[in-house]
Design goal:
- There is one protein chain.
- The protein is α/β, with parallel strands linked by helices and 155 residues long.
- The protein has helices spanning 3-27, 43-53, 104-113; strands at 35-40, 58-59, 68-72, 78-83, 96-100, 129-130, 136-141, 147-151.
Length: 155
């Protein structure tokens, strides 16, 4: 084999894996949300809250036990509630789950009918925050103290 043919063959062999790797990196997709999971003190109370108040659809839980409830949060995303918290948590409002609703006014009526208090981000009771982008948002806590934002953002 001529030295020039040998160099061409080596160059092709060495460049193939690297060009293949670069192509795979360029085609890689961003990570996507799969699920959110957190502990609750009373699984039945928390499950009822998320199922009935937010109209979340319960989905099969592969553990098939009485310790987990899984809810769909839309295509390819879920909320996993797990029994086991010893007490209610003392959480920061910045650490929250957020749901969007078509009408914040209708959602507030639902809150009032259930006698559930809400507040602005600055924790002013029964006040809604207006973000700079025009989105209205309010905050409430689930039975275990986890913060939930509800807004009227159009995604």
């Amino acid at each position: 084999m001529k030295p020039s043919h040998f160099l061409i063959a080596i160059t092709c062999c060495l460049s193939f894996p690297f060009s293949s790797f670069a192509q795979n990196n360029a085609q890689a997709k961003a990570a996507s949300l799969n699920h959110i999971a957190f502990y609750v003190a009373d699984l039945n109370i928390a499950s009822t809250f998320y199922r009935d108040f937010f109209d979340l659809k319960e989905i099969p839980n592969p553990f098939n036990d009485q310790k987990h409830t899984w809810f769909s949060l839309g295509p390819n995303s879920a909320l996993h509630i797990i029994s086991g918290a010893k007490t209610k948590g003392n959480y920061f409002i910045e650490e929250h789950l957020c749901f969007s609703t078509p009408s914040i006014e209708i959602f507030i009526k639902k809150l009032k009918a259930q006698k559930i208090s809400y507040m602005s981000f600055n924790k002013v009771i029964n006040e809604v925050t207006l973000r700079p982008d025009g989105v209205h948002q309010l905050y409430l806590q689930d039975p275990d103290g986890h913060w939930i934002e509800v807004n009227d953002a159009k995604l």
